[in-house]
From TrEMBL:
Keywords: Membrane, Transmembrane, Transmembrane helix. This is Uncharacterized protein. The lineage of its organism: Eukaryota, Viridiplantae, Chlorophyta, core chlorophytes, Chlorophyceae. It comes from the Eukaryota. It comes from Chlamydomonas euryale. The chain crosses the membrane at residues 23-45, 52-74, 94-113. The keyword Transmembrane helix applies.
Amino acid sequence: MADQPPAPAAPDASDDSLANVGLAFGLVCAAGASTMIGAGIAFLVKSTNHMFMAGALGLSAGVMLYVSFVEIFTTKAIDGFIEAGYPVNEAYQYGTLSFFGGMFITWILDLLCHGLIHLQAWFEEQIRERRAAKKAAALAG
């Protein structure tokens, strides 16, 4: 039994990883409560202004996207370039280029998808017109 490694020590209160647990838990609870209150208001109020609700939904989606993108941008991309050995200035440059490059690629893919949808609708319209023309020719002829 003397050959066993010692048990890991319990983290103390001064450990940085545990210092803000209460604050983090409180913020998560506040965010959940805010979501519940907002959903309750949306479903309980009968005379809903649809323009206001659309604007509020757009604003909340924008805030969530901003928070997510900033988290990805700062902690993942830039820290990844720094850990790969790039200087801090270059890491910010490459992280910024990667971020906006990804947005550009997403925009191009969005345009491509919309173009394919419109192309499909055009082909379907051409098929309907040809069938109608054949049917009219058969009835006339």
